[in-house]
C-alpha cells in the first residue's frame, strides 16, 4: 500500500447524519485522512425522512470525506412501492459505484460496518474481484441485542457470528468481549481493537456557562436505565439546588413516556429534558455538568458494547459516574479517573453521585483524570497510523 491510499466505507446508511455508528465512521475517516488516506462512504439506502433540518444531496463532501447515496437520494419516499424500488436500485448501483471508484482511484481497503451476513458475502466477492482488502467493524453483539428485546436469535445472527469473520481480512472489535469472541470463532483472524473515539478539539471551544448545578445523562430512550437514574437521583442526600438533565432523543411517544417516568419521583420539578440538540449546545451541557451519568448493566450486551458517550464525557473534563461493567474496568479506576459503582445498584450509584456533592474539589481532579484517560485512549488521531499499519500487515 502506497503512502497515499484509498478507503471505502460500506454497510452503514445515512452518512453524514446519524448517531454513534455514524460518528465513529466520521472519526475513523478523519484519522485515516490525516495519515494520507482518502475516504468515500457509500450509503446503499435512502434512510432520512424529508426535513428542513436535513439538507443533504445524493453525493457530496463532509469535511474531507466523500459520500454518496447509491439509492440516488438520501430521503426515503412515503410510497411503499417507491421505497422498495429504491432499495433494489441502491443494491445494484452500489456495485457500480464501487467498481467506478476502483477504476478511478484503486481501492486499497474497505471498512464494512454491517451485521448482515449476505451483504458481507457480496463485499467479499467484490474485494476478490477488484483486489482490495476488507475490514469488519464489530461493535455490537447482535444476538444479545435481539434477546434483550425478547426476540429469538435469527438465522442472519447465527451465520454472521459463526462464519462472518471468515469472509474478511481483519476485524476491528470495540471491546475485549468482542475481541475474544472473534478469537474463539476465527482463531487466526487478525484483529485491531479500536475503542470509542472522540474529537477532543470540539470540547476546547465551549465557553458557554449554565446557571444551574446539574447531573447529566445523555442516551437513547432506554427506560430501564432512565428509571434507574431517576431513582438514584431521588435518593441523593442533599440536592435542593441540584438538577438532573436528561438528553434523550426519540419520537413523540418516547418523549411522552419519558415525561411519565419523571412524574413518578418526588423531585420531578428539578428534572430538565432535552432532545435533538445542536452539537455545540450538547458540548456546552457536558462541559458544565457536575457529573456525567452512564450506568451499564451486567448483561452480555453492555459488556460487549462501548457507548460513544463515554468518549465525549471524558473530553468534557468532568467526572463520569458509571458501573464496573465491560470496558469501564479496562480503562478507568474508581476515584482516580471516574466514580465507579461496583454493582448495578441504584443506592450504590447514588453514593457515587453524592461523592461529587460532598467532595467537589476531588471530583474535579477525577474529571481531569478521566480526560487524561480519554486523550491517551479515545482521541481519534491516535488510530490513523495504527489502522494503516494493520492493513499493511494483513496477509
Automatic annotation (TrEMBL):
Q: Quote one Gene Ontology molecular function term.
A: glycosyltransferase activity
Q: What class of enzyme is it?
A: transferase
Q: Does the keyword Ribosomal protein apply?
A: no
Q: Which InterPro entries match?
A: Glyco_trans_1 (IPR001296)
The EC code for this enzyme is 2.4.-.-
Which PANTHER family does the UniProt record give? GLYCOSYLTRANSFERASE WBBK-RELATED (PTHR46401)
Protein name as catalogued: Glycosyltransferase
